[in-house]
Design a protein that fits this description.
3 helices; 71% helix; mainly alpha; 93 residues
């Protein structure tokens, strides 16, 4: 009985309360497509992925990660300087 009440609640949410402009958007008709995508992701990550990768050698990504981290640090410094400059000189906007 409790389950039936929740189904009615979902019907109210998805038909009466929802924004009609989003009715034709992908994945917005019901919660089940999103739930299927999430469950598929969990299956791939937890079951299928380890089964496929069990006999493979791990990739060597040390250099890639060093360059990626260097880029992230430089980009963060640049972003900090830009925001600081804007806040310092254009606070009256």
């Amino acid at each position: 009985m409790f389950h039936v009440q929740h189904c009615g609640c979902f019907d109210v949410i998805f038909s009466l309360v929802s924004d009609p402009r989003t009715a034709k958007w992908p994945l917005m008709s019901s919660p089940f497509p999103t739930l299927a995508i999430c469950l598929s992701y969990v299956y791939i990550v937890k079951v299928l992925g380890p089964r496929v990768m069990e006999n493979r050698k791990p990739m060597e990504l040390r250099k890639v990660l060093v360059y990626y981290n260097l880029f992230q640090v430089l980009f963060s410094i640049w972003l900090f300087l830009e925001v600081s400059f804007i806040n310092m000189f254009f606070t009256d906007l």
